[in-house]
Design brief:
alpha/beta; binds nicotinamide-adenine-dinucleotide; 44% helix; 8-stranded mixed beta sheet
């Protein structure tokens, strides 16, 4: 099948590369010339394990192409995937201007019947709007079908997820169009769930809202566990053994971030509000998360009083491990608040530093190694559970820091392990160690 993918961010590039890997001829289009130039040379503009190798392999196999030209990219294709961003507007609703532009680009360049597949996360009703807009813009003899195919990959393991996902959701009003998209996806060997367009759009928001709820729920349990002297790790393990609950997404920490959960939860409360429905549960989830992102600062203030003049090391800046994505990372809120309070912030991340420099306060100092970040620090905040941090020899905290006081926002170490070192250790939902 000849396919083109509009937008080569985390979703578009992984989709394009994976579709070419299962045998389709794929042209990826992006308006960012620097990105396209890099990708043509087999260089991935984003950090995703395994992506670059797969890109190179399929470019060499002659199945994967990159261009900035919509005209060139849409030539002779049967199916066009839209994977442009849908960032949040000031009121929390989704900004659909990139989607609209992509639709206009499609309408201006196609010359034959087409199936447009929306991968981007869009509010319920958007795919019907896309179809109406396309029909109003293309010549009458061209038949247009629109399919909702929301994406569930996780950044940091997106290539793995694309080949091992739990389900592929196909939302279509036309059975024929659904069949074509089903055939395209069959080689992935993943269960396919077909439904109507609106339900498919809602599945994406409901899934993210549910996962965010699970995170805020366990974080609230963790906060209560701390006060009770219970251990949230044991509580989560005991809960997760119940199949009705499941063990995933029960890791207490400093909350969720990233490009999806924060914006999609807000967008869903907005979708509900537009229908005069007050989605109270989801609003509470968002509120709990906002509080949880700051919890290490509260703990440090309780311990030290003022943080002014303190040298604070931040370990991990990306919103989660194995990605360089800094969107809505807890490190943004935390570093801003620490700098505003007059602390000296020294930060380390194995891959996200270049992106971090664009969004963290300019006073933040970056180091090449964990050891350099810890040098002479009054305290350390662990913000991302990178393996480099989880596997660190705990003696390093003792050797490098002014005083080994660790505020671990991701419960990277077991209490038993930490107890063997002269470290003061504050984590989430577990008893502190002095
Ligand atoms: P992104 O911001 O990383 O990438 C979007 C890309 O689209 C950019 O490279 C941009 O230059 C390009 N673009 C914008 N307008 C264009 C146009 N008219 N023509 C060609 N290219 C254009 O976005 P992302 O993180 O990949 O997310 C894309 C969508 O997928 C969003 O709706 C998001 O909510 C959804 N999603 C993201 C994830 C994730 O983990 N990132 C997971 C599931 C779903």
């Amino acid at each position: 099948m000849k396919i083109s993918v509009v937008g080569t961010g985390y979703v578009g590039l992984v989709t394009g590369v994976s579709l070419s890997h299962i045998g389709h001829y794929v042209t990826c289009i992006d308006i960012d010339e620097t990105k396209v130039e890099k990708m043509r040379q087999g260089i991935s503009p984003i950090y995703e394990p395994g992506l670059e190798e797969l890109m190179k392999e399929n470019i060499q196999a002659g199945r994967l192409f990159f261009t900035t030209s919509h005209q060139e990219g849409f030539r002779d294709v049967d199916v066009i995937y839209i994977a442009v961003g849908t960032p949040e507007k000031e009121d929390g609703s989704a900004n659909l201007s990139y989607i609209e532009q992509a639709v206009r680009d499609i309408a201006a360049n196609i010359t034959k019947d087409i199936i447009v597949v929306t991968k981007s996360t869009v509010p319920v009703g958007t795919n019907h709007y896309i179809k109406e807009l396309l029909i109003s813009l293309v010549p009458k003899h061209i038949n247009v079908e629109v399919v909702s195919n929301p994406e569930f990959l996780r950044e940091g393991s997106s290539v793995y997820d694309t080949f091992h996902g739990d389900r592929i959701v196909i939302g279509a009003d036309s059975e024929e169009a659904a069949k074509v998209i089903e055939e395209i996806n069959k080689p992935f060997g993943i269960p396919i769930f077909k439904t109507d367009i609106k339900s498919a759009e809602m599945i994406k928001y409901a899934s993210n809202a549910f996962l965010a709820t699970k995170i805020s729920f366990i974080n609230e349990i963790a906060n209560i566990c701390e006060k009770l002297g219970a251990d949230v790790e044991s509580v989560a393990r005991g809960m997760g053994m119940d199949k009705r609950i499941g063990s995933m997404f029960l890791n207490a920490g400093i909350g969720y971030g990233g490009s999806c959960f924060p914006k999609d939860t807000k967008a869903l409360t907005q979708i509900a509000a537009n229908l005069d429905h007050n989605f109270e549960l989801l609003k509470a989830v968002i509120k709990v998360n906002n509080h949880q992102q700051r919890i290490l600062i509260d703990k440090a203030r309780e311990r030290f009083g003022s943080l002014t003049g303190k040298r604070i090391a931040l370990l991990g800046l990306a919103f989660k491990p194995n990605t360089d994505d800094m969107r809505e990372a807890a490190s943004i809120v935390i570093s801003k608040e620490l700098i505003a309070e007059g602390a000296k912030v020294v930060a380390y991340d194995p891959v996200a530093v270049e992106n971090a420099k664009k969004v963290l306060p300019q006073e933040v100092i970056y180091t090449e190694s964990i050891e350099d970040a810890l040098e002479n620090a009054d305290m350390v905040f662990i913000l991302t559970e990178w393996s480099q941090i989880k596997e660190l020899d705990l003696n390093i905290y003792v050797q490098k820091m002014k005083q080994p006081i660790v505020f671990d926002g991701r419960n990277c170490y077991s209490i038993n392990e930490v107890q063997q070192y002269p470290i003061e250790y504050h984590s989430i939902g577990r008893k502190p160690i002095y």
